[in-house]
Amino acid sequence: MVKCAASRVISTFVFAAFLAATPPASAKEINFDQATIAELNAAFDAGTLTAEKLVEMCLERIKAFDREGPKLHAVITLNPDALEIARALDAERKAKGPRSPMHGIPVIMKDNFDTVDMPTTGGSVLLEGSMAPDDAFMVKKLRDGGAIILAKLNLGEFANGSQSSLGGQSLNPHDLTRTPAGSSGGTGVGIAAGYAPMGLGTDTGGSVRGPSNVNGIVGLKPTHGLVSRDGIIPLALSLDTGGPMARSVYDVAVALGVMTGVDPADPATSKSKGKFHTDYTQFLKADALKGARIGVARDFTGADPDVDWIFEASLKAMEKAGATLVDVRYPKWFLDSTFSAVFTLYPMEFKVQIADYLKTTAPKYPKTLEELIDRAYEYTSLGEDGAGPNPYRWAYFVNTEQPSGDLTDPSYLALRDYYMPMTSALIDGIITKNKLDAIVYPTGTRRPAQIAAPAARLVPGEGPSIPSPTGIANLSGFPDLIVPAGFTTDDLPVTISFFGTAFSEPKLLALGYSFEQATQAIRRPVTTPALPGGMIEVPE
Fold first, then answer.
1. 73: in domain
2. Over the stretch 457-488, which tens digit does the pLDDT of each residue have?
Protein backbone atom coordinates (compact mmCIF):
# COMPACT_ATOMS: atom_id res chain seq x y z
CA MET A 1 0.00 0.00 0.00
CA VAL A 2 2.81 2.39 0.88
CA LYS A 3 4.63 1.34 -2.29
CA CYS A 4 1.60 2.18 -4.44
CA ALA A 5 1.24 5.60 -2.82
CA ALA A 6 4.92 6.29 -3.40
CA SER A 7 4.55 5.23 -7.02
CA ARG A 8 1.66 7.64 -7.50
CA VAL A 9 3.72 10.46 -5.95
CA ILE A 10 6.66 9.69 -8.23
CA SER A 11 4.39 9.45 -11.27
CA THR A 12 2.75 12.76 -10.41
CA PHE A 13 6.17 14.41 -10.01
CA VAL A 14 7.42 12.99 -13.32
CA PHE A 15 4.25 14.12 -15.11
CA ALA A 16 4.54 17.63 -13.63
CA ALA A 17 8.20 17.80 -14.64
CA PHE A 18 7.22 16.67 -18.15
CA LEU A 19 4.60 19.43 -18.38
CA ALA A 20 7.11 22.04 -17.16
CA ALA A 21 9.65 20.92 -19.77
CA THR A 22 7.15 20.72 -22.63
CA PRO A 23 6.54 23.91 -24.61
CA PRO A 24 2.94 25.13 -24.38
CA ALA A 25 0.65 24.04 -27.19
CA SER A 26 0.11 27.63 -28.31
CA ALA A 27 3.35 29.57 -28.25
CA LYS A 28 5.15 32.19 -30.26
CA GLU A 29 8.86 32.31 -30.89
CA ILE A 30 10.56 35.67 -30.42
CA ASN A 31 14.10 36.86 -29.99
CA PHE A 32 14.86 37.38 -26.31
CA ASP A 33 16.32 40.85 -26.85
CA GLN A 34 12.97 42.00 -28.27
CA ALA A 35 10.89 40.49 -25.44
CA THR A 36 9.27 42.47 -22.66
CA ILE A 37 9.79 41.48 -19.05
CA ALA A 38 6.17 40.24 -19.08
CA GLU A 39 7.03 37.90 -21.96
CA LEU A 40 10.20 36.73 -20.23
CA ASN A 41 8.19 35.94 -17.11
CA ALA A 42 5.65 34.05 -19.21
CA ALA A 43 8.51 31.97 -20.63
CA PHE A 44 9.87 31.38 -17.10
CA ASP A 45 6.43 30.22 -15.97
CA ALA A 46 6.03 27.94 -19.00
CA GLY A 47 9.42 26.33 -18.41
CA THR A 48 10.76 27.39 -21.81
CA LEU A 49 13.33 29.77 -20.30
CA THR A 50 15.53 29.94 -17.21
CA ALA A 51 17.39 32.86 -15.69
CA GLU A 52 20.63 31.00 -16.35
CA LYS A 53 19.84 30.71 -20.06
CA LEU A 54 18.76 34.35 -20.22
CA VAL A 55 22.04 35.49 -18.66
CA GLU A 56 23.96 33.30 -21.12
CA MET A 57 22.18 34.95 -24.06
CA CYS A 58 22.88 38.42 -22.66
CA LEU A 59 26.56 37.57 -22.23
CA GLU A 60 26.69 36.29 -25.81
CA ARG A 61 25.47 39.65 -27.11
CA ILE A 62 27.94 41.53 -24.93
CA LYS A 63 30.75 39.32 -26.22
CA ALA A 64 29.68 39.79 -29.84
CA PHE A 65 29.25 43.55 -29.79
CA ASP A 66 31.10 45.24 -26.93
CA ARG A 67 34.76 44.47 -27.63
CA GLU A 68 34.24 42.67 -30.93
CA GLY A 69 32.12 43.51 -33.97
CA PRO A 70 31.10 47.19 -33.70
CA LYS A 71 33.11 47.51 -30.46
CA LEU A 72 30.51 49.60 -28.65
CA HIS A 73 32.55 49.92 -25.42
CA ALA A 74 29.50 50.16 -23.17
CA VAL A 75 30.62 47.73 -20.45
CA ILE A 76 33.18 48.57 -17.77
CA THR A 77 32.75 45.52 -15.49
CA LEU A 78 30.93 42.20 -15.89
CA ASN A 79 29.63 40.41 -12.81
CA PRO A 80 31.71 37.20 -12.65
CA ASP A 81 29.07 35.54 -10.47
CA ALA A 82 26.07 36.32 -12.71
CA LEU A 83 25.55 32.74 -13.90
CA GLU A 84 25.88 31.33 -10.40
CA ILE A 85 23.36 33.88 -9.11
CA ALA A 86 21.00 32.99 -11.95
CA ARG A 87 21.18 29.28 -11.14
CA ALA A 88 20.38 29.99 -7.48
CA LEU A 89 17.41 32.16 -8.48
CA ASP A 90 16.14 29.42 -10.81
CA ALA A 91 16.25 26.96 -7.91
CA GLU A 92 14.48 29.46 -5.66
CA ARG A 93 11.76 30.00 -8.27
CA LYS A 94 11.09 26.26 -8.39
CA ALA A 95 11.03 25.94 -4.61
CA LYS A 96 9.21 29.11 -3.56
CA GLY A 97 8.09 31.00 -6.66
CA PRO A 98 9.36 34.39 -7.88
CA ARG A 99 10.11 37.23 -5.46
CA SER A 100 8.83 39.86 -7.89
CA PRO A 101 8.39 40.38 -11.66
CA MET A 102 12.13 41.18 -11.72
CA HIS A 103 13.08 37.70 -10.44
CA GLY A 104 15.80 36.31 -12.70
CA ILE A 105 15.92 39.42 -14.92
CA PRO A 106 19.45 40.65 -15.80
CA VAL A 107 20.04 44.36 -15.16
CA ILE A 108 22.85 46.59 -16.37
CA MET A 109 23.63 49.88 -14.65
CA LYS A 110 25.65 53.03 -14.92
CA ASP A 111 28.88 52.71 -12.97
CA ASN A 112 27.98 55.42 -10.48
CA PHE A 113 25.62 53.13 -8.51
CA ASP A 114 27.31 51.51 -5.54
CA THR A 115 27.48 47.72 -5.79
CA VAL A 116 28.98 45.70 -2.97
CA ASP A 117 30.28 42.95 -5.28
CA MET A 118 31.73 45.03 -8.17
CA PRO A 119 33.83 48.21 -8.27
CA THR A 120 32.06 51.58 -8.47
CA THR A 121 34.27 53.94 -10.43
CA GLY A 122 32.18 56.77 -11.84
CA GLY A 123 33.95 55.91 -15.08
CA SER A 124 37.16 57.38 -13.71
CA VAL A 125 40.70 56.02 -13.49
CA LEU A 126 40.82 58.07 -10.29
CA LEU A 127 38.45 55.53 -8.65
CA GLU A 128 39.55 52.43 -10.53
CA GLY A 129 38.87 49.32 -8.41
CA SER A 130 36.99 51.22 -5.68
CA MET A 131 34.67 48.90 -3.72
CA ALA A 132 31.62 50.41 -2.02
CA PRO A 133 30.73 49.32 1.53
CA ASP A 134 27.17 48.35 0.48
CA ASP A 135 24.66 48.51 -2.35
CA ALA A 136 22.90 51.70 -3.40
CA PHE A 137 19.27 51.70 -2.23
CA MET A 138 17.94 51.21 -5.78
CA VAL A 139 20.37 48.34 -6.36
CA LYS A 140 19.41 46.66 -3.09
CA LYS A 141 15.72 46.91 -3.99
CA LEU A 142 16.40 45.26 -7.33
CA ARG A 143 18.42 42.46 -5.73
CA ASP A 144 15.72 41.96 -3.10
CA GLY A 145 13.28 41.56 -5.98
CA GLY A 146 15.44 38.84 -7.50
CA ALA A 147 17.11 40.87 -10.25
CA ILE A 148 20.60 39.87 -11.41
CA ILE A 149 23.11 42.73 -11.56
CA LEU A 150 24.88 41.71 -14.76
CA ALA A 151 27.28 44.57 -15.48
CA LYS A 152 28.42 48.09 -14.65
CA LEU A 153 28.26 50.39 -17.66
CA ASN A 154 30.35 53.19 -19.11
CA LEU A 155 29.32 56.82 -18.54
CA GLY A 156 30.41 60.37 -18.86
CA GLU A 157 33.04 60.54 -16.15
CA PHE A 158 31.48 61.46 -12.80
CA ALA A 159 28.13 61.74 -14.65
CA ASN A 160 29.11 64.55 -17.01
CA GLY A 161 29.66 64.37 -20.76
CA SER A 162 29.71 61.17 -22.81
CA GLN A 163 33.26 59.87 -22.35
CA SER A 164 35.16 58.39 -19.41
CA SER A 165 38.81 57.95 -18.57
CA LEU A 166 38.22 54.32 -17.58
CA GLY A 167 35.85 53.08 -20.30
CA GLY A 168 36.67 55.51 -23.09
CA GLN A 169 34.04 56.52 -25.62
CA SER A 170 30.94 54.36 -26.08
CA LEU A 171 29.50 54.21 -29.60
CA ASN A 172 25.92 54.64 -30.74
CA PRO A 173 24.75 51.27 -32.15
CA HIS A 174 22.48 52.99 -34.69
CA ASP A 175 25.46 54.86 -36.18
CA LEU A 176 28.95 54.28 -34.79
CA THR A 177 30.05 57.80 -35.74
CA ARG A 178 27.30 59.42 -33.64
CA THR A 179 27.32 60.24 -29.95
CA PRO A 180 25.47 57.88 -27.59
CA ALA A 181 24.87 61.03 -25.48
CA GLY A 182 25.58 61.28 -21.81
CA SER A 183 26.07 60.80 -19.15
CA SER A 184 24.19 57.47 -19.02
CA GLY A 185 25.41 56.67 -22.51
CA GLY A 186 26.71 53.20 -21.71
CA THR A 187 23.32 52.15 -20.34
CA GLY A 188 21.55 53.61 -23.37
CA VAL A 189 23.86 51.73 -25.71
CA GLY A 190 23.58 48.48 -23.72
CA ILE A 191 19.77 48.50 -23.69
CA ALA A 192 19.52 49.35 -27.39
CA ALA A 193 22.04 46.60 -28.24
CA GLY A 194 20.15 44.00 -26.20
CA TYR A 195 22.74 43.45 -23.47
CA ALA A 196 19.94 43.14 -20.89
CA PRO A 197 16.20 43.78 -20.65
CA MET A 198 16.54 46.66 -18.21
CA GLY A 199 19.10 49.21 -17.07
CA LEU A 200 19.71 52.08 -14.68
CA GLY A 201 20.95 55.56 -15.40
CA THR A 202 21.08 58.81 -13.46
CA ASP A 203 19.77 62.21 -14.50
CA THR A 204 20.91 65.67 -13.39
CA GLY A 205 20.11 67.70 -16.51
CA GLY A 206 19.02 65.06 -19.02
CA SER A 207 21.41 62.16 -18.50
CA VAL A 208 18.76 59.41 -18.65
CA ARG A 209 16.75 61.13 -21.35
CA GLY A 210 19.50 62.13 -23.79
CA PRO A 211 20.89 58.58 -24.09
CA SER A 212 17.35 57.16 -24.26
CA ASN A 213 16.64 59.53 -27.13
CA VAL A 214 19.70 58.99 -29.32
CA ASN A 215 19.75 55.21 -28.70
CA GLY A 216 16.02 54.91 -29.40
CA ILE A 217 14.78 53.37 -26.14
CA VAL A 218 12.39 54.17 -23.27
CA GLY A 219 13.66 56.07 -20.26
CA LEU A 220 12.20 57.75 -17.19
CA LYS A 221 13.48 60.61 -15.07
CA PRO A 222 11.29 60.11 -12.00
CA THR A 223 9.97 62.77 -9.67
CA HIS A 224 12.76 63.98 -7.38
CA GLY A 225 12.35 61.88 -4.23
CA LEU A 226 10.43 58.98 -5.76
CA VAL A 227 13.57 56.81 -5.74
CA SER A 228 16.47 57.07 -3.32
CA ARG A 229 19.80 58.66 -4.28
CA ASP A 230 21.61 56.84 -1.48
CA GLY A 231 24.70 55.09 -2.83
CA ILE A 232 24.85 57.04 -6.11
CA ILE A 233 27.96 59.11 -6.77
CA PRO A 234 26.52 62.65 -6.65
CA LEU A 235 26.75 65.35 -9.27
CA ALA A 236 24.23 67.75 -7.72
CA LEU A 237 21.78 66.31 -5.22
CA SER A 238 19.24 69.09 -5.75
CA LEU A 239 18.87 67.83 -9.32
CA ASP A 240 20.05 64.19 -9.23
CA THR A 241 17.85 61.14 -9.53
CA GLY A 242 18.26 57.57 -10.71
CA GLY A 243 15.95 56.26 -13.40
CA PRO A 244 15.07 53.07 -15.31
CA MET A 245 15.87 52.56 -19.00
CA ALA A 246 14.43 49.75 -21.13
CA ARG A 247 12.99 48.79 -24.51
CA SER A 248 9.36 49.23 -23.51
CA VAL A 249 7.17 51.35 -21.27
CA TYR A 250 5.98 48.17 -19.56
CA ASP A 251 9.54 47.25 -18.55
CA VAL A 252 10.19 50.73 -17.15
CA ALA A 253 6.95 50.49 -15.16
CA VAL A 254 7.85 47.06 -13.76
CA ALA A 255 11.31 48.15 -12.68
CA LEU A 256 10.13 51.43 -11.16
CA GLY A 257 7.67 49.68 -8.85
CA VAL A 258 10.38 47.44 -7.45
CA MET A 259 12.67 50.39 -6.61
CA THR A 260 10.35 52.91 -4.92
CA GLY A 261 10.08 53.45 -1.17
CA VAL A 262 10.97 55.87 1.60
CA ASP A 263 14.66 55.58 2.51
CA PRO A 264 15.85 57.05 5.83
CA ALA A 265 19.28 57.58 4.24
CA ASP A 266 17.77 59.98 1.66
CA PRO A 267 15.52 62.68 3.17
CA ALA A 268 14.18 63.57 -0.30
CA THR A 269 12.24 60.29 -0.41
CA SER A 270 10.01 61.51 2.44
CA LYS A 271 8.23 63.53 -0.25
CA SER A 272 7.04 60.27 -1.79
CA LYS A 273 5.32 58.95 1.34
CA GLY A 274 1.76 58.03 0.41
CA LYS A 275 2.47 58.87 -3.26
CA PHE A 276 4.65 56.03 -4.50
CA HIS A 277 3.39 52.73 -5.88
CA THR A 278 4.97 49.29 -5.92
CA ASP A 279 3.18 48.29 -9.13
CA TYR A 280 3.04 50.84 -11.95
CA THR A 281 1.94 48.29 -14.56
CA GLN A 282 -1.60 48.58 -13.17
CA PHE A 283 -1.86 52.01 -14.81
CA LEU A 284 -0.91 50.90 -18.32
CA LYS A 285 -3.86 51.14 -20.69
CA ALA A 286 -3.69 51.02 -24.48
CA ASP A 287 -6.52 53.58 -24.76
CA ALA A 288 -5.14 56.06 -22.20
CA LEU A 289 -4.76 58.78 -24.85
CA LYS A 290 -8.50 58.76 -25.51
CA GLY A 291 -9.89 61.90 -23.89
CA ALA A 292 -6.49 63.11 -22.68
CA ARG A 293 -5.49 66.76 -22.99
CA ILE A 294 -1.91 67.05 -24.16
CA GLY A 295 0.08 70.27 -24.10
CA VAL A 296 2.38 70.71 -27.10
CA ALA A 297 5.63 72.60 -26.41
CA ARG A 298 6.74 73.88 -29.81
CA ASP A 299 9.45 76.01 -28.19
CA PHE A 300 11.81 73.10 -28.85
CA THR A 301 11.12 72.65 -32.56
CA GLY A 302 12.75 74.33 -35.55
CA ALA A 303 16.29 72.97 -35.17
CA ASP A 304 16.03 69.85 -37.35
CA PRO A 305 13.33 69.25 -40.00
CA ASP A 306 13.53 65.46 -39.61
CA VAL A 307 12.99 65.65 -35.85
CA ASP A 308 10.15 68.13 -36.33
CA TRP A 309 8.48 65.83 -38.89
CA ILE A 310 8.55 62.86 -36.50
CA PHE A 311 7.25 65.09 -33.71
CA GLU A 312 4.33 66.27 -35.87
CA ALA A 313 3.61 62.68 -36.91
CA SER A 314 3.53 61.74 -33.22
CA LEU A 315 1.01 64.47 -32.53
CA LYS A 316 -1.17 63.16 -35.37
CA ALA A 317 -0.99 59.67 -33.84
CA MET A 318 -2.12 61.06 -30.48
CA GLU A 319 -5.05 62.87 -32.07
CA LYS A 320 -6.02 59.70 -33.91
CA ALA A 321 -5.96 57.88 -30.56
CA GLY A 322 -8.45 60.41 -29.17
CA ALA A 323 -6.24 63.03 -27.49
CA THR A 324 -6.93 66.76 -27.59
CA LEU A 325 -3.83 68.85 -28.32
CA VAL A 326 -3.26 72.28 -26.78
CA ASP A 327 -0.33 74.49 -27.81
CA VAL A 328 1.60 75.86 -24.82
CA ARG A 329 4.53 78.24 -24.59
CA TYR A 330 7.17 78.78 -21.94
CA PRO A 331 8.22 82.39 -21.22
CA LYS A 332 11.28 83.36 -23.24
CA TRP A 333 13.11 84.70 -20.19
CA PHE A 334 12.65 81.32 -18.55
CA LEU A 335 13.96 79.34 -21.53
CA ASP A 336 16.93 81.67 -21.80
CA SER A 337 17.93 80.96 -18.20
CA THR A 338 17.33 77.23 -17.65
CA PHE A 339 20.60 75.97 -19.12
CA SER A 340 22.73 78.40 -17.14
CA ALA A 341 20.72 77.65 -13.97
CA VAL A 342 21.53 73.94 -14.17
CA PHE A 343 25.18 74.56 -14.91
CA THR A 344 25.48 77.08 -12.08
CA LEU A 345 23.88 74.81 -9.50
CA TYR A 346 25.75 71.64 -10.20
CA PRO A 347 29.38 72.83 -9.92
CA MET A 348 28.72 74.40 -6.53
CA GLU A 349 27.06 71.25 -5.19
CA PHE A 350 29.52 68.83 -6.80
CA LYS A 351 32.51 70.35 -5.05
CA VAL A 352 30.97 69.71 -1.62
CA GLN A 353 28.98 66.55 -2.27
CA ILE A 354 31.69 64.59 -4.09
CA ALA A 355 33.90 65.06 -1.02
CA ASP A 356 31.14 63.54 1.13
CA TYR A 357 30.96 60.54 -1.18
CA LEU A 358 34.73 60.10 -1.33
CA LYS A 359 34.78 59.66 2.45
CA THR A 360 33.20 56.22 1.83
CA THR A 361 36.10 55.09 -0.38
CA ALA A 362 39.33 53.38 0.70
CA PRO A 363 42.24 55.51 1.98
CA LYS A 364 44.21 55.25 -1.28
CA TYR A 365 41.59 57.22 -3.24
CA PRO A 366 41.34 61.04 -3.47
CA LYS A 367 39.14 62.62 -0.81
CA THR A 368 38.39 66.07 -2.23
CA LEU A 369 37.92 67.74 -5.60
CA GLU A 370 41.36 69.27 -5.20
CA GLU A 371 42.87 65.82 -4.77
CA LEU A 372 40.97 64.53 -7.80
CA ILE A 373 42.48 67.34 -9.87
CA ASP A 374 45.99 66.67 -8.55
CA ARG A 375 45.69 62.96 -9.31
CA ALA A 376 44.27 63.65 -12.78
CA TYR A 377 47.44 65.49 -13.80
CA GLU A 378 49.34 62.20 -13.35
CA TYR A 379 47.52 60.65 -16.33
CA THR A 380 48.97 61.88 -19.60
CA SER A 381 48.78 58.81 -21.86
CA LEU A 382 46.76 55.66 -22.45
CA GLY A 383 47.49 52.62 -20.32
CA GLU A 384 47.66 49.05 -21.60
CA ASP A 385 43.97 48.57 -20.78
CA GLY A 386 42.98 51.67 -22.75
CA ALA A 387 42.32 53.88 -19.72
CA GLY A 388 43.77 57.35 -19.93
CA PRO A 389 43.27 61.11 -19.93
CA ASN A 390 39.86 62.75 -20.20
CA PRO A 391 40.73 66.45 -20.57
CA TYR A 392 37.15 67.41 -21.45
CA ARG A 393 35.80 66.25 -18.08
CA TRP A 394 38.86 67.15 -16.05
CA ALA A 395 38.65 70.73 -17.35
CA TYR A 396 35.25 70.85 -15.63
CA PHE A 397 36.98 69.79 -12.41
CA VAL A 398 39.30 72.78 -12.66
CA ASN A 399 36.45 75.10 -13.63
CA THR A 400 34.40 73.87 -10.66
CA GLU A 401 37.32 74.38 -8.32
CA GLN A 402 37.75 78.03 -9.34
CA PRO A 403 36.29 80.59 -6.91
CA SER A 404 32.61 80.48 -7.86
CA GLY A 405 30.89 80.47 -4.52
CA ASP A 406 29.83 77.65 -2.25
CA LEU A 407 26.60 76.37 -0.71
CA THR A 408 26.23 79.55 1.37
CA ASP A 409 26.73 81.83 -1.64
CA PRO A 410 23.69 84.09 -2.29
CA SER A 411 23.69 83.20 -6.01
CA TYR A 412 23.44 79.50 -5.17
CA LEU A 413 20.77 80.01 -2.50
CA ALA A 414 18.72 82.14 -4.90
CA LEU A 415 18.74 79.34 -7.46
CA ARG A 416 17.98 76.57 -4.98
CA ASP A 417 15.45 78.37 -2.80
CA TYR A 418 13.70 80.60 -5.37
CA TYR A 419 14.46 79.64 -9.00
CA MET A 420 13.71 75.94 -8.55
CA PRO A 421 10.39 76.47 -6.68
CA MET A 422 9.50 79.12 -9.28
CA THR A 423 10.10 76.54 -12.02
CA SER A 424 7.81 74.06 -10.28
CA ALA A 425 5.12 76.73 -9.88
CA LEU A 426 5.43 77.77 -13.52
CA ILE A 427 4.98 74.21 -14.84
CA ASP A 428 2.16 73.51 -12.37
CA GLY A 429 0.47 76.72 -13.49
CA ILE A 430 0.72 75.93 -17.21
CA ILE A 431 -0.65 72.42 -16.71
CA THR A 432 -3.44 73.53 -14.33
CA LYS A 433 -4.53 76.53 -16.40
CA ASN A 434 -4.82 74.45 -19.57
CA LYS A 435 -6.24 71.38 -17.76
CA LEU A 436 -3.49 69.21 -19.20
CA ASP A 437 -2.62 65.60 -18.47
CA ALA A 438 0.95 66.11 -19.73
CA ILE A 439 3.16 68.29 -21.92
CA VAL A 440 4.95 66.70 -24.88
CA TYR A 441 8.07 67.85 -26.72
CA PRO A 442 10.80 66.30 -28.87
CA THR A 443 13.37 64.97 -26.38
CA GLY A 444 16.26 65.96 -28.60
CA THR A 445 15.79 69.08 -30.68
CA ARG A 446 18.10 67.70 -33.38
CA ARG A 447 19.54 64.32 -34.35
CA PRO A 448 22.63 63.12 -32.44
CA ALA A 449 25.86 64.89 -33.31
CA GLN A 450 28.95 63.25 -34.73
CA ILE A 451 31.23 62.18 -31.87
CA ALA A 452 34.09 64.26 -33.28
CA ALA A 453 31.91 67.34 -33.85
CA PRO A 454 32.40 70.38 -31.60
CA ALA A 455 28.67 70.37 -30.79
CA ALA A 456 29.14 67.05 -28.98
CA ARG A 457 31.85 68.49 -26.74
CA LEU A 458 30.65 71.72 -25.19
CA VAL A 459 33.18 73.63 -23.15
CA PRO A 460 32.39 75.09 -19.72
CA GLY A 461 30.05 78.05 -19.91
CA GLU A 462 29.01 77.33 -23.49
CA GLY A 463 25.32 76.60 -23.96
CA PRO A 464 23.26 75.16 -26.82
CA SER A 465 22.15 77.40 -29.67
CA ILE A 466 18.48 76.72 -28.86
CA PRO A 467 16.75 76.14 -25.50
CA SER A 468 17.43 72.79 -23.85
CA PRO A 469 14.14 71.17 -22.79
CA THR A 470 15.46 68.48 -20.45
CA GLY A 471 16.83 70.66 -17.63
CA ILE A 472 13.33 71.95 -16.85
CA ALA A 473 12.38 68.57 -15.39
CA ASN A 474 15.38 68.62 -13.06
CA LEU A 475 14.86 72.21 -11.95
CA SER A 476 11.19 71.52 -11.20
CA GLY A 477 11.80 68.03 -9.81
CA PHE A 478 9.02 66.73 -12.07
CA PRO A 479 8.94 63.41 -14.00
CA ASP A 480 9.71 63.04 -17.70
CA LEU A 481 9.06 59.85 -19.72
CA ILE A 482 10.86 59.23 -23.02
CA VAL A 483 9.24 57.01 -25.70
CA PRO A 484 10.54 56.10 -29.20
CA ALA A 485 8.65 57.99 -31.93
CA GLY A 486 10.40 57.25 -35.25
CA PHE A 487 13.55 57.64 -37.34
CA THR A 488 15.19 60.37 -39.42
CA THR A 489 15.97 59.97 -43.11
CA ASP A 490 19.47 58.79 -42.15
CA ASP A 491 18.00 56.13 -39.83
CA LEU A 492 18.62 57.79 -36.48
CA PRO A 493 16.08 57.45 -33.67
CA VAL A 494 13.79 60.24 -32.50
CA THR A 495 11.83 60.14 -29.25
CA ILE A 496 9.05 62.13 -27.65
CA SER A 497 8.85 63.24 -24.02
CA PHE A 498 5.79 63.09 -21.77
CA PHE A 499 6.31 65.65 -19.00
CA GLY A 500 4.04 66.08 -15.98
CA THR A 501 3.72 67.36 -12.44
CA ALA A 502 5.15 65.82 -9.26
CA PHE A 503 4.38 62.12 -8.79
CA SER A 504 2.35 61.93 -11.99
CA GLU A 505 4.25 58.80 -13.11
CA PRO A 506 1.03 56.71 -13.27
CA LYS A 507 -0.48 59.13 -15.78
CA LEU A 508 2.71 59.59 -17.81
CA LEU A 509 3.33 55.85 -18.03
CA ALA A 510 -0.28 55.32 -19.13
CA LEU A 511 -0.02 57.97 -21.86
CA GLY A 512 3.41 56.76 -22.96
CA TYR A 513 2.21 53.17 -23.11
CA SER A 514 -0.82 54.17 -25.16
CA PHE A 515 1.41 56.09 -27.60
CA GLU A 516 3.87 53.19 -27.77
CA GLN A 517 1.14 50.66 -28.56
CA ALA A 518 -0.28 52.93 -31.27
CA THR A 519 3.04 53.62 -33.01
CA GLN A 520 5.45 50.72 -32.28
CA ALA A 521 8.38 52.95 -33.27
CA ILE A 522 11.29 51.00 -31.76
CA ARG A 523 13.64 48.72 -33.67
CA ARG A 524 16.94 46.92 -33.24
CA PRO A 525 20.08 48.93 -34.20
CA VAL A 526 21.68 48.00 -37.51
CA THR A 527 25.08 47.19 -35.95
CA THR A 528 23.72 44.73 -33.37
CA PRO A 529 21.64 42.13 -35.27
CA ALA A 530 19.94 39.06 -33.86
CA LEU A 531 22.34 36.26 -32.94
CA PRO A 532 21.81 32.54 -33.57
CA GLY A 533 20.24 30.78 -30.60
CA GLY A 534 18.57 33.91 -29.24
CA MET A 535 14.98 32.73 -29.72
CA ILE A 536 12.63 31.92 -26.84
CA GLU A 537 9.16 30.41 -26.76
CA VAL A 538 6.48 32.53 -25.12
CA PRO A 539 2.90 31.34 -24.48
CA GLU A 540 0.27 33.21 -26.48
1. yes
2. 444 334 445 678 999 999 999 999 999 999 99
Q: Does the active-site annotation cover 271?
A: no
Asked if the structure places residue 163 within a domain, the reply is yes
CATH code for the domain in which residue 98 is found: 3.90.1300.10
Q: Report whether pLDDT(433) > 70.
A: yes
pLDDT per position as a tens digit, 366-394: 999 999 999 999 999 988 777 899 998 99
- Spot the catalytic one: 53, 110, 140, 152: 110
Q: Tell me which of 422 and 17 has the higher pLDDT.
A: 422
Annotated catalytic residue within 207, 238, 476, 497:
207
User: Which residue range is the domain that position 491 belongs to?
Assistant: 26-539
The answer to whether 430 touches 422, Cβ cutoff 8 Å, is no
pLDDT at 386: 77
144 half-sphere exposure, CB direction, 13 A CA radius = 12
Q: How far is CA 480 from CA 273, 281, 322, 364, 461, in A?
A: 20, 17, 22, 39, 25
Residue 248 domain-assigned (yes or no): yes
Is 248 assigned a catalytic role?
no
10, part of any domain: no
User: Is 207 annotated as catalytic?
Assistant: yes
CA geometry: angle 206, 211, 213, nearest 5 deg: 90
Catalytic residue among 183, 468, 476, 504: 183
Domain count, the chain: 1
